Amino acid sequence: MHKRQFLFAALAVAALGTLAQGPARAQGGQPLKIVLATPAGGASDIAARLLAQNMAKSLGRQVLVENKPGGNGVPAMQAVLSAPADGHTLLWAQSSMAGTPLLVKSAPVKSFAEFTPVAPVINLVYGLYVNPRLPVNTVAEFGAHLKANPERLSYGTGVLSEYMVTMHYLQAAGAKALRVPYKGGSQLMPDLISGELQFNFGPLAPALPHVKSGKLRLLATLPERTDLAPGVPALAESGIATDTLPIWNGLVAAPGTPKDVVAGLSQEVNRALADPALRAALEAQGFRVSGGTPQQMGAAIESATAVWRQFIRDHSIPQE
Fold first, then answer.
1. For 79, 222, 255, 298, which has the most beta carbons within 10 A of its beta carbon?
2. Which residues are within 8 A (CB) of 177 and not within 5 positions of it... i.e. 6 or more apart?
3. pLDDT digits (tens, 9 = 90+) for 285-295
4. Nearest Cα to 177, choosing from 204, 194, 161, 197?
5. How would you classify the pairing of strands 32-36 and 63-67?
6. Do 38 and 142 reside in the same domain of the chain?
7. Which residue, of 173, 208, 238, is where some domain finishes?
8. Closest Cα to residue 267, out of 49, 59, 1?
9. What residues make up the domain containing 201?
10. Same-domain status, 20 and 46
11. Which of 171-208 are b and which e, b meaning 16 or more Cβ less than 10 Å from the residue's Cβ?
C-alpha cells in the first residue's frame, strides 16, 4: 500500500512539474495560511503542522496553521470564503465537511464541492477505544456489553466522520448509545480517559500515547490493521464492513482561485508528500499518505458527498 502511494505521489509531482512552476512560490513573502476546523493537538492539526513545516522550508515563506474549531466546520469554511481567492488561504478539508452543507442550515455553501480542490493529503486510521474500566477486551465483548446496556454508554464525537463511523458500527451491532458532541477530538480525550465517556471511534494519532500508557484500551482499527498497534484486529475482522467510510484529509481553496495558482499549490503539496522525512513523520502518527491531483481531490469530495447523503437518508437525520 505504502509503496504504491509513494510511487503515485512521485508521479504526481513529475506530472505537475511542468505546470505553473511559480504560483505557490511567486506570491512573495506573504504567508500561506491553512485554516483548520479542529482544535490544536488533534489528528488533523498534527498532520497539517507537519505539512506546513515542510512546505515553509521549500517555499521560503511562512506557512501558518490557524485553528477555527467547532460548528461542523462552518467557521473554518467562512474564514476561507471571506479571504481573497488568490491561493494565500487554504482550507484543511476533512471528509466530514462533505456532510456539513447537508446537515447544517448555516453552512456558507450549498455543496462542499463549491470549494476549489487542491490535493488529497492523507487517509486516517481510526480506532475503537474504550475506557479500561469497561469490562471488555474484544469487539465481540464490547458489542454484547452495549446491547446489554442500551443507551447507557456514552461516546464523544469531535468531527462528523466520528459520528458517521460510530452510527455505522451501532447499526451493524444492533446497539444504541448516547452521543456527546465536542469541538474536536483533543477536547473529548480527557473525558474518555476519566470515564465520563465510555468509548470513542477516532483517529489513531492523538489516542495512541494513551493506549500505550494504559489509560485507554484499543479494541480494533479501521479500515485495516496498522503496524503501530501490533496484534490489534481490524474492525472488518468482526464482520463489520468499513471500506465505504470516507476518512481523509486534503486541501481546498476558495471558489474562483485561478487554475495556475491551484496547479502550483498542488505541485508543492505533492512535492512535500514525496519527501521521505515527511512521509515517515506522518506514518509514525498513524496517517496513510495519499497525495494526488486537484481532479482526484474533487472526485473524493463528490464520493464523500454521496456517502453522506445516503447516510443522512438511512438514519433520518434532520438538518440543524
1. 222
2. 146, 151, 152, 153, 154, 155, 166, 170, 198, 199
3. 999 999 999 99
4. 197
5. parallel
6. no
7. 238
8. 59
9. 126-238
10. yes
11. eebebebeeeebbbbbbbbebbbeeebbbbbbbbbbbb
